[in-house]
Design a protein that fits this description.
Blueprint lengths: L2 E6 L1 H18 L6 E6 L2 H17 L5 E4 L30 E9 L3 H11 L6 E9 L11 E5 L7 E5 L1 H4 L3 E6 L2
Parallel strand pairs: 2-3, 2-4, 4-5, 5-6
Antiparallel strand pairs: 1-8, 7-8
Helix pairs in contact: 1-2
């Protein structure tokens, strides 16, 4: 029987996102030429929240986009004959910009590899950073995040569920052991 525990509640997520936004501002010298791109699904909502926080800090809007990496997955044949494909929307030209890929959970690194492949189809940014709410370890590829909300070691039989108000009606990060 799987056990479920809360890693971050609504207030802890808000604090983590505020800290992450501050770190992004520092790493990008005030967020000039910054573009946030969230990975579908929950990375999009997190990117939009980070964009709003950075705008409050720096007084200028931060362009936010979204990536659906489905067609770039290395296991596409395993997900069935009719994969559900979401929207990819890149806000303008990426040339000379700092692009921050935003995702909810980083585990094996394969989703990020697919995101990098897809981004390459839209141009050549000056720099790409990776920002994740939860880094659960367990990498299969040499990919590391630049900005992390929470590091949480997990096992292969565990799952980390990120819930966001916009899609799930509440904010929480839950660890499901033995799923």
């Amino acid at each position: 029987m799987p056990s479920r525990s809360i890693l971050l509640d609504e207030r802890a997520i808000a604090r983590a996102l505020t800290r992450m936004a501050s770190e992004l501002v520092e790493r990008t010298q005030g967020g000039e030429h910054l573009v946030l791109v969230g990975i579908q699904r929950r990375g999009v909502e997190l990117a939009q929240r980070l964009g709003q926080l950075i705008q409050q800090m720096e007084g200028r809007p931060i362009p936010c986009g979204k990536l659906d990496i489905t067609l770039y997955r290395d296991d596409l044949q395993a997900i069935g004959a009719r994969p559900v494909i979401g929207e990819t929307q890149i806000p303008g030209d990426l040339e000379g910009r700092t692009v921050v890929i935003v995702d909810d959970v980083l585990y094996t690194g394969r989703t990020i590899r697919a995101a990098l492949d897809e981004l390459a189809d839209f141009g050549r940014p000056k720099r790409i950073l990776l920002c994740v709410l939860v880094d659960r370890g367990g990498r299969e590829l040499p990919i590391q995040p630049d900005v992390v909300g929470l590091g949480q070691a997990t096992g292969p039989g565990d799952r980390v569920d990120v819930l966001v108000q916009e899609l799930d009606g509440r904010d929480a990060v839950e660890l499901v052991r033995g799923s």
